[in-house]
Design a protein that fits this description.
Chain lengths: 260, 261
């Protein structure tokens, strides 16, 4: 199968000059969940934006679903969720979910159907006609994820989507996200600065160091039920397992190494 | 949800509106008493009772002249609103046009309407309402343009990224994000322009043309030393201005409800 993302010797230099990314080599397999973790300013968000074709790399090759990043963006091969939900507050929840389909000229009836499907998946069916302002932060973020999934992308890009949520909501959202990605089979590139979050969600945790942004180490994560049927309960088991704490320690040490 | 200014609990609307109403009535009574007690001549200041009497006597004329002045204000308001929004849209889409048009529109705000009105009246002749409507249009364009342009610039970075990620065309980005996002700013511009439209409409009548509006009646009554009658038309002008102000306020409320501030 074509890998979801292939990055070959990717550099990004911002005028200044600031070397944000230096020689990034990374492949995200189809259906794989990969987290990018590192201290602020390590370029993890920049890397995600390069994959999304929101920033142009100054060197190297970026391929998404086997195509150049710009073509993948035009083809809607990825869905994206940001730290802020970024919902359009003048549209209803369902209309927000429909937005990517509307931009790409999907007929209204089909859009409605798909939005209803997705809202059921994120458990917000009863809020379809509400305005985003009436929803809690966690619910808004679920709407944003549903919106990202609307065109059935094979890749989901997420930039600290749970960063602004409280710890309890955050853990619930992580379980939700695992269930959803299990159902859709989409690969995920997930930016976070939370070690437990990266470990519990991921197949692989990519640890980055700042100035210049480099990959220092790739640690195996503890995504529950990988390759088998996924049960939400597994997440709680994982959080309490010894292997989880070992992985957390590994990531923490890799982060510390990057700082020296 | 839009945070509404809370009224004091229990006392409701009365508590918010009663003090200004009492104050207003008190001021009228004081005015009446002073005019009568001091024997102020009516060319200086007619008593409220005399003005009220004139309002009653001239009610038919007041209604017809108010509808002419109000009609001019409304036509100019709509025309100025459409032009202001259209110019702001063009300025947002084309940087060159924005750089050319913005200073010109802002300069228009410095043009005193008293300077424009006689020129327009001579240009279009005194038997038509067009010069008056044009004066209103010029006055309205500026605030609508300024606030619309500001609204169109206020695109949240996350929304801009979203539109790029969705590969939306510039027209789609305007339609889905820019324009709806600017609506609160656009209606605020309209709300600010509405009472100014009435003022412009009245002032434009001071410079000739048909004697069918509130402004022309005020100047002719004053010229004929019918001071109480002049004041009656002034009262009608105030009411007309308030009506436009309230209509603008209502539109703004309608357009901005269910939005965060």
């Amino acid at each position: 199968m074509t890998p979801a993302v292939e990055l070959l010797a990717v550099d990004k230099v911002f005028p200044g000059p600031v070397q944000a990314l230096d020689g990034i080599e990374l492949t995200v397999g189809a259906g794989e969940f990969v987290s990018l973790i590192g201290p602020s300013g390590c370029g993890k968000s920049t890397l995600l934006r390069v994959v999304a074709d929101l920033e142009q790399p100054t060197g190297g090759t970026v391929r998404v679903s086997g195509k150049p990043a710009s073509q993948a963006r035009l083809d809607q091969d990825y869905g994206i969720a940001f730290q802020q939900a970024g919902l359009l507050e003048w549209r209803t929840v369902a209309e927000n979910v429909e937005l990517p389909l509307q931009v790409h000229g999907v007929p209204k009836a089909r859009r409605r159907e798909r939005a209803a499907e997705l809202l059921e998946m994120v458990g917000l069916t009863e809020f379809a006609r509400s305005r985003p302002g009436e929803l809690s932060g966690g619910m808004q973020q679920r709407v944003a994820i549903a919106r990202a999934l609307a065109p059935s992308p094979s890749l989901l890009l997420m930039d600290e989507p749970f960063g602004a949520l409280d710890e309890m909501t955050r853990e619930r959202m992580q379980a939700e996200l695992l269930r959803i990605t299990g159902e859709t089979g989409a690969a995920v590139l997930f930016v976070t600065h939370s070690i437990p979050e990266a470990v519990v969600l991921s197949d692989r945790v990519v640890v980055m160091s700042p100035r210049p942004g480099r990959i220092t180490e790739i640690v195996p994560g503890r995504r529950p039920g990988t390759g088998t049927e996924l049960a939400p309960d597994d997440v709680e088991d994982v959080r309490e397992s010894a292997a989880f704490f070992t992985a957390i320690t590994d990531v923490r040490e890799a982060l510390r190494k990057g700082h020296e | 949800m839009t945070p509404r200014r809370a009224l004091p609990r229990g006392e409701g609307i009365g508590a918010a509106y009663l003090p200004p109403v009492v104050f207003g009535v008190g001021a009228l009574v004081a005015w009446q008493v002073l005019v009568v007690a001091l024997g102020v001549p009516s060319f200086l200041l007619p008593a409220p009772s005399a003005i009220a009497e004139q309002v009653g006597a001239q009610l038919g004329v007041i209604m017809s002249t108010a509808s002419v002045t109000g009609g001019n204000a409304l036509i100019g308001l709509v025309a100025g609103f459409v032009i202001g929004v259209a110019l702001a849209l063009l300025a947002a889409w084309s940087r060159l046009f924005g750089e050319l048009a913005t200073p010109v529109v802002l300069a228009a705000s410095a043009v005193p309407i008293v300077a424009l009105a006689p020129v327009f009246t001579t240009m279009f002749g005194s038997t038509t309402e067009v010069p008056r409507q044009l004066v209103v249009t010029v006055v309205v364009v500026v605030p609508v343009f300024v606030s619309t342009a500001r609204g169109l610039r206020q695109v949240q970075p996350v929304h801009a990224d979203l539109m790029t990620a969705l590969a939306a065309s510039p027209w789609q980005a305007s339609r889905f994000v820019r324009l709806p996002g600017a609506v609160p700013y656009i209606v605020t511009g309209l709300r600010l322009a509405a009472p100014a439209a009435v003022i412009a409409s009245i002032v434009a009548e001071y410079f000739g043309g048909q004697q069918n509006g509130l402004g022309s009646r005020i100047s002719s009554a004053a010229a004929n030393t019918a001071y109480a009658r002049a004041w009656a038309f002034v009262v009608a002008s105030i009411v007309l201005g308030l009506l436009f102000h309230l209509a603008g306020l209502l539109l703004e409320r309608l357009a901005t409800r269910s939005r965060p501030a």
